[in-house]
């Protein structure tokens, strides 16, 4: 199916050709246009998405109508509203394309089948979940300990490509600062 | 060994007596006094800890010497500096007892052996890692979208017991607000 998915998984576990046929049979493929939604608030969350190309934004609208950004996801990243996906509840977040985006879709049922059917895949997803958990903890610490300048510098250091591709207003929202503050930082 | 650990694991996967003997053989047991450190900054992180009783605080000292709190952990919770544990690097966080605390210790080597030796345990740890990832994402959203009052109310709703056991100064640090702000909120 997609050598990108195989290469991504094989950073963690080696798969035989036969195993990869089994793995890839659990995914479906979709193309989305710029600005299209993969997940909308209050809808069911059917899939976790593996990004083959493009750029996604996971966002949240608060009661005052203000838009906040939980995360961005580009090539080789997994994204969904994980709470709604794993607990099969309605989405509280939205997932939208910032660029034309090509994804592989994995339903929760197929995720569970993959884990049960091939321990290597359970091991792979455990490694990804641990990395995700660690990255989230680092971001929590950055909210507690860093000011806007430091958070911007961290983002620049970790994901230089992202800053080229994402409008400044959205970067400001991700960092939890105003557009004006960000302009001062990035000028 | 400890029925609490077994009961905790069996919320997710059922174990036979024989399997539980295998599982519990991977843990060692330790008692810590109030204020003792399980992890200190810049030291190696040998273990992830399962809390049988007591209360732990995972903290971070910034360059100005200010102490920030990443999380609390009480009975039935797992805690460690996950980045340092999984990547076998030096601790950036510290883990300290707020009460006399009784823990089970799991080395990374034994974590990996447990996962490889019994797929049920890999499945268990995947479920825990997914929950941890989800909880972290919810906390990130709370930093972006909620003010101090709302964050305090969320904490009160989710972990009422915690507020009885943790000094107000530490709750303030966890919420990222001043002690004075917290006094207004909780009075």
TrEMBL record, chains A, B:
List, for all copies, the residue spans of the domain called Cyclic nucleotide-binding: 29-116
State the signal peptide span: none
Q: Pfam families of this UniProt entry?
A: cNMP_binding
Under InterPro entries, the record lists:
cNMP-bd_dom, cNMP-bd_dom_sf, RmlC-like_jellyroll
What name does the UniProt record give this protein?
Answer: Crp/Fnr family transcriptional regulator
Q: Give the classification, highest ranks.
A: Bacteria, Pseudomonadati, Bacteroidota, Cytophagia, Cytophagales
